[in-house]
Amino acid sequence: MRSIVSAMLLALLATAPVQAAGAFAVDTEEGQKAGDEGYGIGWGDSREAAGAAAMRQCRKMGNDNCKVVARFDTCGAYVSNRTTYGVGWGRTEDAAKEMAFDKCPTCKLVLSECE
After folding, report:
1. Domains held by the chain: number
2. Residue 19, pLDDT score
3. pLDDT score of 52 more than 60
4. CA gap 58, 61 in Å, rounded
5. Is residue 90 part of a domain?
6. What is the rounded CA–CA span in Å between residue 113 and residue 50?
7. What's the rounded mean pLDDT across residues 88-100?
8. Is 10 part of any domain?
9. Within a domain: residue 8?
10. Which domain holds residue 72?
11. Nearest-angstrom CA–CA distance, 60 and 13
């Protein structure tokens, strides 16, 4: 019985989609407060595929002017304020946030995700 369960688990893992990268697409404009942005988060087997998925998700949410602002392998973060934004990536969510806030210390966290 144990070997049957192990074989079924291995088969399931072999057919599971690989999510090797993530991306954020954002629709924002100057003067908009942090958190009012429209956005999409995408995952895929490459950074390009993740970016395309993020764009689809952003547009699906009713946003017309989406652009990919970050592609990452493990974790990503997006921060913004009324005039600018910062993005970060890293092996941990904290590392991604730190990088994003280093680029925009006066920003607020809008989103962060890890694979």
Report:
1. 1
2. 59
3. yes
4. 5
5. yes
6. 13
7. 96
8. no
9. no
10. 17-114
11. 29
Q: 114, 82 in Cβ contact below 8 A?
A: no
Residue where the block lists tokens 């390009």: 48
CA 75 and chain centroid, separation: 7
Structural domain includes residue 37: yes
Which residues are bridge partners to 114 per DSSP? Answer: 75
What's this model's pTM, rounded to 2 decimal places? Answer: 0.76
Q: For the chain, what's the residue count?
A: 115
CA nearest to 88, candidates 114, 61, 58: 114
Q: Which two tokens stand for residue 101?
A: 């806030």
80 or 30, which is more confident?
80
Per-residue pLDDT at 14: 41
In angstroms, the CA 56 to CA 109 distance is 22
Stretch 44-72: mean pLDDT, rounded? 94
Q: How far is CA 4 from the centre of its chain?
A: 37
pLDDT score recorded for residue 25: 95
Rounded CA-CA distance 90/76 in Å is 7
Q: Which is nearest to 71 in space by CA: 99, 48, 94, 37?
A: 48
Tokens representing 90?
């890293």
